[in-house]
Amino acid sequence: MAGIKDVANWAGVSIATVSNVINHTKAVSPELTARVYAAIEALDYAVNPVGRGLKSNRTRQIGVIVPSFSQVFFPAVLQGIHESAMQHGYSVSVFESNSNMDTEKEHIRFLQHSWIDGVILASYANRENISDREYIRTLAKMGNEKKAIPVVTLENALDPALDAVIVDNCHAAETAVSHLLSLGHKKIAHIAAPLRLQIGQLRLSGYKKCLRDASIPFSNRLVCEGDYSPRSGYLCAKNLLKQGEAFT
DNA sequence: ATGAGTAATGCTTTGTTTCC
DNA sequence: GGAAACAAAGCATTACTCAT
Question: Where in chain A is the domain with CATH 3.40.50.2300?
């Protein structure tokens, strides 16, 4: 693999000039610029990310942790992250936590020592849970340390100190229920997201609020807790049908 | 204004030296 | 002999000085 010294030798310039051409950090004459680019092409040179990272403290690598690759929601999210990262000259490393807090923490520990520039995290942590609070504080601190690794959470606003990209889950559930009501349905079942998570609670409250607004009594028997997977959706629907509670 | 050359810097690993 | 301390290497970037 050719390094910056090889390019400098081939082009007959100093390594400083090569660096200035690549990064546009200083004016370099068109003649030398052309020679540097010719050397880069001839030697098939690519900047060594380790060397660049040593000096700049930046690797242009982003870590992404999602609970599951098989959930319908995340492949589209990952695609969007990947496309946006590419546009900005970043690459993405993806990890699966299997909806398991220990695995998620393990990935975070690994990324903390992996010269990553930032983390996008669809966390399974619950800020109401005392045992998760210390972990959430750790995530919030990561962006303020000497080698800052900012963390952005998806779907779950864990801490005011952490940036988050979230959906208004309460309103979304309300919208879904009111759509069904507008079609004339009165008995609406809710296959819920995990209720230990904020997202599950918000969706359930949106569901309840819409029923309340329509003066329809809430029945716990019409709520079944799933885990996002297609299989849990199937099992919940099966259970609801089995227990004989009529819904439309 | 342009470009060359040098040294320092970042962090980790590996090799070498010193000391008990 | 083993542990601890120190030095050097790896690579790209950047600041600085000097030359043309």
Answer: 55-165, 169-242
Q: Report the alpha-carbon distance of residue A78 to residue A154 in Å, rounded.
A: 11
Residue A173 CA, nucleotide C12 C1', distance (Å): 51
Q: Characterize the bridge pairing of strands A118-121 and A61-66.
A: parallel
Protein CB footprint (7 Å) on chain B nucleotides:
1-12
Q: What are phi and psi of A93, to 5 degrees?
A: -110, 130
What's the pLDDT tens digit per position in A9-65?
Answer: 788 887 878 888 887 777 777 778 888 888 888 887 878 777 777 777 777 888 999
From the Cβ of A52, is strand C under 7 Å away? yes
For the segment(s) A169-242, the CATH number from 3.30.450.40, 3.90.220.20, 1.10.10.1020, 3.40.50.2300 is 3.40.50.2300
